[in-house]
């Protein structure tokens, strides 16, 4: 009997072809896996969503320490790549910038940016190029930023006037910085303060706060684009639509006011500029009213939290290291004495150490620890790994700023690392990316930086700052809360005292009432300032005299100061002063 019948031969050939096909498929699969960036184990359906925490940049940093500077995560239905090194950031932002210039269409942006027609979230294309050009040349040019100097001066002066009216009190400076940034941006964008009322209620402020909260959050649709129905069921879509309608109504009111006002000789705000540009005949893409609203809101939303957070983190680090704060105060006060003028923006070019302090705060505490997401438009090879089209990409500036291969003692706050350094705030050095880089880098960083620099310089010039009684430098926490900008989880509480010796030495620095004169403009106090413990002004001169007696003053509830023996009093701290008790109530006096 013949062992090789046609049937056996056919089966053998079929089996051989199947084996060859399987081997080929396996080799291709293994090759494709080798081209995918390292990835931790995932779960069905949700992928790696279970790994996300309320501090995603911390999670990504830990994963990068285990898997390397480029990792792949499947976040629901969205393939995502995270890079955490300066070298890879340079490949994304410079070498392959054209591939990664698109933005993913996030749910909140589709609604609140009027169908993604702002600069931040607009898809890459002719409209985005035109919108960015308008921002760079019309809204945020050096000339335009300088034209808003008076607004910055007046709003910082209001802050200083308020602080000087409450010397020795514990103050929530986190709230003050946010109010300062909101008021400056609102005046620049809309022509009115954030705290000014619209109609019978503070409507503009309420609507913009809600907008910021919605932009800061993430929705199911950002990870499962096919689950659009979930937004209706959860009520998220209803909340977005309500805020969108309120935004449209408020913006319509503002635009109507500007149109009725016409050319009155008042300096142009952003709405004025965009209304003028809207009428131009040489626009590649016509600007609709909704486009105008999206652009002006973009300036506000992108600028307020980031400026406030930068000030907050900078003052937090200075409070933790008083010797660095003292060095900064000596610099700004020496510059003021040398020029004989109250600190203004013309002095900033001489404040090199203060500029280094701000840079170091942004390195250690980036306000946008994960740069605004990008999306690949074509297939690209990054560091040997294949990145398919429609892949979401995140750059972890938090990890980059703390990379020990780039920075000596990266967890230490050391402004001197930026002294005589060629590391600037642009995207030329990818170790330091506070404002992103490439085509989609922040076009308004000079505006935000101008606010931060003048506010910090004047706060350090006019005031000495202390922590509340009983709080030591090691007690000041640096825990974060992730949102539109990375803020301090607990508010920063400090105690300011007017440095009268410095302000009196500068002509124009003291008013007839003895209070610092901070500006020639409006100096009415800021509204709703958070004073944690109001001072008792009439006690302060007496308390200063008692300190000269070589004893600390004890500030406790008890008998009035008239019942005390000046030689037997102990001080616990001005912030909690209510009444003074005799030292006999305490174990012993504490000599200075």
Automatic annotation (TrEMBL):
Residues binding heme: 442
Keywords noted in UniProt: Heme, Iron, Membrane, Metal-binding, Monooxygenase, Oxidoreductase, Transmembrane, Transmembrane helix
Coiled-coil regions listed in the entry: none
GO molecular function term, any single one: iron ion binding
Pfam short name (any one): p450
Keyword Transmembrane annotated: yes
Record keyword Iron present: yes
InterPro entries tied to this protein: Cyt_P450, Cyt_P450_CS, Cyt_P450_E_grp-I, Cyt_P450_sf
Alphabetized PANTHER family for the sequence: CYTOCHROME P450 FAMILY 71 PROTEIN
Name the UniProt record assigns to this protein: Uncharacterized protein
Originating species: Gossypium anomalum
């Amino acid at each position: 009997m013949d062992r090789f019948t046609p049937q056996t031969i056919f089966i053998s050939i079929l089996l051989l072809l199947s084996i060859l096909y399987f081997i080929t498929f396996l080799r291709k699969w293994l090759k494709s896996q080798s081209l995918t960036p390292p990835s931790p184990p995932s779960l069905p359906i949700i992928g790696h969503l279970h790994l996300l925490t309320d501090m995603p940049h911390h999670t990504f940093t830990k994963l990068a320490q285990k898997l390397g500077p480029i990792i792949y995560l499947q976040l629901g239905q969205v393939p995502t790549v995270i890079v955490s090194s300066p070298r890879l950031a340079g490949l994304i932002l410079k070498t392959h910038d054209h591939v990664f210039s698109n933005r993913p269409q996030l749910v909140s942006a589709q609604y609140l940016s009027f169908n993604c027609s702002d600069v931040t979230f607009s898809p890459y294309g002719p409209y985005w190029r035109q919108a960015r050009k308008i921002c760079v040349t019309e809204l945020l040019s050096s000339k335009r930023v300088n034209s808003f100097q008076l607004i910055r001066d007046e709003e910082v002066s209001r802050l200083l006037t308020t602080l000087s009216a409450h010397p020795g009190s514990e103050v929530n400076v986190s709230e003050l910085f946010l109010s300062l940034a909101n008021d400056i941006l609102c005046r620049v964008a809309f022509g009115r303060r954030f705290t000014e009322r619209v109609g019978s209620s503070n409507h503009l402020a309420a609507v913009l706060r809600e907008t910021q909260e919605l932009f800061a959050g993430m929705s199911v649709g950002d990870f499962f684009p096919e689950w659009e129905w979930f937004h209706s069921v959860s009520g998220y879509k209803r909340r977005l639509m309500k805020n969108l309608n309120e935004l449209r109504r408020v913006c319509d009111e503002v635009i109507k006011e500007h149109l009725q006002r016409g050319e009155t000789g008042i300096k142009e705000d952003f709405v004025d500029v965009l209304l003028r540009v809207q009428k131009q005949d040489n626009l590649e893409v016509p600007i609709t009213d909704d486009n105008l609203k999206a652009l002006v809101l973009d300036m506000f939303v992108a600028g307020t939290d980031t400026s406030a957070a930068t000030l907050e983190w900078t003052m937090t680090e200075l409070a933790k290291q008083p010797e660095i704060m003292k060095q900064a105060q000596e610099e700004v006060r020496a510059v003021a004495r040398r020029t004989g003028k109250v600190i203004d923006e013309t002095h900033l070019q001489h404040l090199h150490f203060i500029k280094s302090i701000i840079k170091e705060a942004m390195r250690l505490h980036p306000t946008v620890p994960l740069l605004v997401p990008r999306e690949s438009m074509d297939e690209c090879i990054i560091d040997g790994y294949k990145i398919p089209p429609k892949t979401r990409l995140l750059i972890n500036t938090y990890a980059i700023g703390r990379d020990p291969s780039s920075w000596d003692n990266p967890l230490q706050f050391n402004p001197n690392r930026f002294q005589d350094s060629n590391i600037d705030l642009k995207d030329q050095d990818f170790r330091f990316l506070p404002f992103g880089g490439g085509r989609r880098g922040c076009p308004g960083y000079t505006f935000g930086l101008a606010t931060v620099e003048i506010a910090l310089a004047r706060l350090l010039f006019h005031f000495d700052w202390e922590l509340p009684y009983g709080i030591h430098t090691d007690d000041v926490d640096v825990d974060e809360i992730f949102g539109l900008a990375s803020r301090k989880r607990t508010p920063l509480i400090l105690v300011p005292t007017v440095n009268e010796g410095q302000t009196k030495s500068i002509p124009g620095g003291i008013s007839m009432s003895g209070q610092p004169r901070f500006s020639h403009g409006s100096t009415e106090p800021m509204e709703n300032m958070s004073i944690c413990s109001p001072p008792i002004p009439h006690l302060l001169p007496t308390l200063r005299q008692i300190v000269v007696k070589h004893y600390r003053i004890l500030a406790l509830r008890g008998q009035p100061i008239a019942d005390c023996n000046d030689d037997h009093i102990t001080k616990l701290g001005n912030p909690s002063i209510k009444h003074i008790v005799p030292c006999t109530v305490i174990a012993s006096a504490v000599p200075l």
